[in-house]
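Standup notes
- DV: blocked on the single-chain target, sequence here:
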Amino acid sequence: MPDKVAAAYDNAILTANKAGHIQDEALAYERGGVFFKRIGDELTASRYLARAQQLYAVWGAEAKADLLRTQYASLVTNARRRRSFQSFKKRRSSKNMIVHVSPGEGCHA
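- DV (later): unblocked, structure below
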């Protein structure tokens, strides 16, 4: 049953995104986040709630974004930390990329 519910939230998110309905996408992320929190999947809940908070802010619903930030502070903060760390790791690995060039060849990345 949880898989069907998760799929329904993902479908709602995708449909709202394709239609350009940012407020509906934010709501679907929020409700999905609450669902995942309720079933004990805090990692997914944190991702969904952080995305909902971002979308509400982009839409201009700052009060709603602030409410989510307050209600789910630890989840939203943890999601941001994970994203920042993953982004740091990607930047770091691309800076450390080594390109081998044989004599007479151009440089291709």
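- Follow-up: The chain has one domain: 2-95.
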